[in-house]
Amino acid sequence: MRYGFNLLLWTGHVTDDHAPLLKALRETGYDSVEIPVFEGAPDGYARLGERLAALGFDVTAVSVLGAGHNCLSDDNAEREAALDRARWVVDCAKALGASIVAGPMHSQLGHFTGHGPTAEERRRGIDFHRRAGDHGHRHGVRFALEALNRFECYFLNTMDQLAGYLDEVDHPAVKGMYDTFHANIEEKDPVAAIGTISRHLIHVHVSENDRGTPGRGHVPWAATYQALREAAYDGRLTIEAFGRGVPALAAATRVWRDFFPDEAEVYRSGFAHMTQGWADAGG
To answer: How would residue 151 be classed by pLDDT, with cut points 50, 70 and 90?
Structure first.
């Protein structure tokens, strides 16, 4: 098992200024980091990847589809722009040394039509993911699609929806992930939902019900870790927590108050929580 931390707690773009933070994460015991890919160029990510490798980090990437990049749109030009965006994310991830791009790269984040997904949107999404998956497959990068809660997207909200969609996409580079925060909102049984997605599961986000420090809320952690072990999951457990340090990100994730005294508590207590919880589940 690898234990990771998503850098979105601090920034949407990792730079040399974050070197002390990366060192602190490594010293805490993390052997993986998740890097936001929202801006920049492959050359810049290649340089960052070299620094991360020197620190001994395994790397994953995280990204989204924003305005102008809606792969479900009825506008062909916008769908092509979404595909170009996905290919750019793959190129940056490869340069970074990441084999996984996590996140809700199945629809425009925060965009709603006023009704549920249509059959035509599903057809467009499948076409998009097969084409984006082809590019990822050529470069050794897989998408780990993330189902989001109904307040952030309307296309894929549950593990059952995600698993069924991935069955139809049927592409080796397009898989799924499980996020404890979203499951806490959308699943009638968040623990059982792990079994639903297990056939496609390649990534896990460890996120408390309030997006704060893992283990300080009401997510059923012991049962969650046990279910992941029973599903033979052996990838990464990556903490995703959000604060108010990045105003645009705080607005996008609806973070209006502090959920922890400081970020150090999140990564230090979070690491102890994950490692002990995983060990206990194996006992």
So the answer is: very high
- Phi and psi of 249, rounded to 5°? -70, -40
Average pLDDT of the segment spanning 86-114: 96
φ, ψ of residue 202 in degrees (nearest 5): -130, 0
217 contacts 260 by C-beta, under 8 angstroms? no
pLDDT of residue 252: 81
| Distance from C-alpha of 210 to C-alpha of 208, rounded to nearest angstrom | 5
Model confidence at 27: pLDDT above 90? yes
Tens of pLDDT, residue by residue over 200-243, are 999 999 999 999 999 999 999 999 999 999 999 999 999 999 98
The secondary structure of residue 237, as a DSSP letter, is E
H-helix segments, the chain? 19-28, 42-54, 76-96, 119-138, 159-169, 180-186, 192-197, 221-230, 247-252, 263-281
CB atoms within 10 A of CB 162: 26
The CA-atom distances, in angstroms, between 214 and each of 39, 133, 134, 180, 181 are 28, 32, 35, 10, 10
Q: What percent of the chain has pLDDT over 70?
A: 100
User: Which of helix, strand or coil describes residue 3?
Assistant: strand
Residue 112 CB partners (closer than 8 Å, separation 6+): 154
Provide DSSP, 32-62: EEEEE-SSS-HHHHHHHHHHHHHTT-EEEEE
How far is 147 from 140, CA to CA, in rounded Å?
A: 23
Backbone angles phi, psi at 144, to 5 degrees: -110, 90
Look at phi and psi of residue 172 and say left if phi exceeds 0, alpha if psi is from -120 to 50, else beta. Answer: alpha
